[in-house]
Specification:
The protein is an alpha+beta fold and about 550 residues long. The protein contains 16 helices and ten strands. Strands 3-2-1-4-5-8 form a six-stranded mixed β-sheet. It has a two-stranded antiparallel ribbon with strand order 6-7. A hairpin with a 5-residue loop joins strand 6 (about 115-120) and strand 7. Helix 8 (about 275-300) packs antiparallel against helix 10 and helix 15 packs antiparallel against helix 16 (about 530-550).
Length: about 550
Amino acid sequence: MNASNQNDEMETPPVVVVVLDHNACRVGTAVPYDAALTLWATMSEDPANWNEVAEYWGRYRSPTVCEFVDGLPIQTSDPQEAFAAIDGHENWLAIDLIQKRIIVGDSVQKLGARATLALETDLEGQKCCPLPFVLPPWWELHESASASLVLDQRESEISIPRTNRSFLFGTPLIETFAEQILKAVSAGRYPPKNLEEQEAWNARHALTVEVHASWLMTPREEVSGRCPRSLMHGAHDWSDAVIWGQRQRFENGMPMIATPDDVLGYDDAPMGTEEMIMYFDLCRHLLDAGWDWCDLQHELSGETQTEMKQKDQLSAFLSDARDSWMDQPFEGGSPTRFIMECSRRRVPRGSEVPIVGMDDTECEQHMPDCDCPICDMMASGLFGVGFTSLAGDSLESDNEFAFSMHETIEDWQREQDEFREFNEKMEREFAERKAMAATGENQDDVFASAWSSPMSEEALPGDASGFLKLSFRLAEIISDLENADTAKEIIQQLNRSFREYRECKDGEHATAKHTLRERLDEVAARHPELVPKVADFHAQIDEQARARASNTD
């Protein structure tokens, strides 16, 4: 469970820090408190040795601590000297890189496996410089511990959920899909050409789900009898929490820094949420490509080919499809390769935000064919950098545990039960509202018009200018225009005028306001039913302009 802690403003004494590494022991008898906590937080990345601690340091350091690990007052020592430094002391921190443990004395703040500290206070008294702690689930944490515990072995065996990517993305995947696709076709299970379009799609999709699920759930000798699905789970929560912590740091002025890709264990490091989502998309892409290949071969059928030759040809085709998929934009955004790299290197994807250690950036946010002024405000960056992430809804669309984001079937089933209960509740409430409407009984309409209640005079959070409140009203006008089949050009002109009004400089304000009013009047002239809403929107623009002028004065 996440915790949010904040450092007290009282002075904190330095900490005795001991670091146990494979080829050296280090000790610092007077490490500044913030620097000691930053070392602790750096363990969130699961460093294998002191050199990797130094590489990860930049992702957690703040202006209160030294820029590089070499600046810490920590020296190499022998184990006896290190133990003597903490024995009988209460304000100490031991980091065991060998056995992946953090052991803490009585006087060091208790943080638990997850926490966020604010190391500084700004001029307005607000806490800033967040320091996130997300201990990997295979690390042990012992707080308020005895110094003698440092000499003991860890309580449980280290179990890291390794991901064999050469297996998941390589030849086994390609050849299995090629074999299963050809097997389904040769058995006559692939839908014939004479089916209706929707019926054919349903039949083909059912085969896709079957082959995909079989690949994920079948034990394989190449991975010691494990199912491919199990290789993708075990660390999603940890990875997501680390990424969220980096986003918090960025939003507080820290640089966006990727984890290095040359550390020990990078190739088979645990899979994160977005990489798993992209893997699902890859599998579906390959299966669709395989069915299309079979359709084409049927149309071009000539010489009879052996099953082995067909499999080799289809495997080669699928390999090319996989490689090209890596460089294709995902849903009109960044390339899939970049999305997966960000997941593996645990950085959030902020629109056009430079990432230290990576050449590419997340593409500029865009809303294709979206005429919503609220979305337009978001795309314009009015609320700061826009971050993009994948929720994985598509993985749940087939109601199959094999594809689920949940690691265990028990968790998946629990969510299925919750979905069913929620749907039943929504159906009951809809029936109740429908019955009340039939009898003329008053009811609260959750889909009521933005004009069903007066606009609050209080500013929305992050909307001191009042544009967001205006955008909700304008969004309803535009929705009415779309329902009336209004020409897209007219809607775009209205959106553009509102954007220019929002973004204009003080000297351009009067002209931008006049243009927006003209566009609204044109709408009202074409659609008399919108006159009341347009007239009220005029009044709200005037009120917003008066507020803007008073703030300028």
